[in-house]
Amino acid sequence: MSGLSSSFSADTLVDEIRQWGQDLGFQQIGIAAIGIDDDEEKLMRWLELSRHGAMDYMHRHGRMRARPQELVPGTIRVISARMDYLPPDAAPAEEVLENSSLGYISRYALGRDYHKLLRARLAKLADKVSERCSGTRYRAFVDSAPILEKAFARQAGLGWIGKHTNLINRNAGSWFFLGEILTDLPLPVDEPATAHCGTCTACIDICPTQAIVGPYELDARRCISYLTIELRESIPLEFRKAMGNRIYGCDDCQLVCPWNKFAQLAVEKDFIVRHGLDAPTLVGLFAWSEAQFLERTEGSAIRRIGYECWLRNIAVALGNAATSDDVVAALQSRSDCESAMVREHVSWALAQHAR
Length: 355
Hints:
By secondary structure, this protein is α+β, with helices and mostly antiparallel strands. Among the domains are: 7-88 and 105-183, no CATH class; 281-355, Leucine-rich Repeat Variant (Alpha Horseshoe), CATH 1.25.10. Helix content is 41%, strand content 11%. It has 16 helices and 10 strands. A 4-stranded antiparallel sheet has the order 1-2-7-4, sandwiched between helices. A two-stranded parallel ribbon has the order 3-10. Its EC number is 1.17.99.6. One of its GO terms (cellular component) is cytoplasm.
């Protein structure tokens, strides 16, 4: 190991990495080795069953997701980090979901886009490690590379993968982001986290579209997060009523998880709610012009779906809203939208109110 001469030095460096991570706003840092053969085979089975849907990028890299040494040659360790994101100022999620006139946006997307923020912090952490150990090679990633981040986070002791396939930490629930640094430093590794879901099936039972097809098995094609964010085509008819007022993502499986009673509110100011998106009216959102959409989602993860899918999602939610003159008028205002996909969803929504 460059710059280190003893196991004591390695342990000291790990302690320093954890402290640096805390200073940079991360709640936990863990270190994992690179072998995750069981997760690799589970990924390949998931892909063979086409449960990735239209996410071709999942299939494109295949086994590389479990082999970081192929992504960054020389990698022998994965430094995993997590940062809490639950906005402290957000309207109660359950209240928003129960009000069909409001639009529900996944809590992770209410503030600034986490990708750049976490990646910049991880880069600073990696720079500190590099200063301490000259000649080391590393790369930092935040949901931006083909890595099975939850599996490596589990191996690094940050939590276990729950039945809903999200990572759960017994002291912090699941409302947190993950990021990784791939390194060639032979650092001491942490103990992998053990699972503590027990016999609980709350997440499976609550899923509006039954996307959790079995314990620890998610069919993305049925998941509302996939339907509202990843899918760029028409939303299948069979899922539209079940979507309710969820217009960007879905948090139901996290909202009912008993472990989230230990969840910590975000301390990062960039994760506070922006533009009132914690409890926005559907009619108001549907009236946004494309210019307003781009302005109000600047620096937000929401922008990635684009204006067309934004309108598509809101049209479905308006179709599920309580019938009112305002709702019907809002839908009718988009009945001649230049997007055929939006027009189709508006037509479906109007038909719900005609009944």
